[in-house]
Amino acid sequence: MNYLSQYQPFNDKHELNEAVSDHLSRCKYDLNETDRDVLMMLSRYSVKYAGVSHLKVTTIANTVGKTKRTVQRTIRKLERLHIIETRSFLRKVTGGLGANIYVFLSPSVASSMTPRTSTETPTPVKDSAQVAENEPILFTNEKELLRNTSHKAPYKAFKDAVNTFAGNDSQPLVSKLYGVYLAQTKALKQAYEESELIDVAIQAINATMHASKRKAIRNVPGYYNGVISAMIDRMYDELIGDGLSA
């Protein structure tokens, strides 16, 4: 699992333990028992590569004695509190999405993140919004992709995630990808909270970015459509599984 070393935020387990202690102190009034259980489990599995773990939601759920849906909500909460960030993982050999990678944020990074509100409204997706499908899109600046998004309005969070790696002059691409997101999630509004759906959308952006580092993607909206579709299918399977086990 040496691939995790590229995400490692701390030099050793002592720095990790200090960070976890600081997070627990900073967020002591925001965390419930389940939040703390999940947080401590992630920290226990983040020792070899200090601050990084690669776990299935099912594994976490079975260990803490909660449903997968509860664990997913807890992980999103830990992200909103800037305790961890989630990275999507693409299998190199078999392809497809694997279990997420969880990276602890340092307390200094967390304290520098101040929520901001936005009144920006979505730009309608127009047929004239063009993406140069014959040109490869080279993504950059992965580090900031999923940071500072959970507290923003959904469209603003989505747009910022795209702009992080495609640049600020990427409105046509933003419109295309947001149109894909709206089409994929239209029938899911009653089953999921909007925050859950936008989290999946941003994870799909992250996964698309990872793929672009291995190969040039000529049809970015088409590739993104496949990634977010697979992620939504996985969400639905987990929802059905929770219902059957309830």
TrEMBL record:
Cited InterPro entries: WH-like_DNA-bd_sf, WH_DNA-bd_sf
Protein name: Helix-turn-helix domain-containing protein
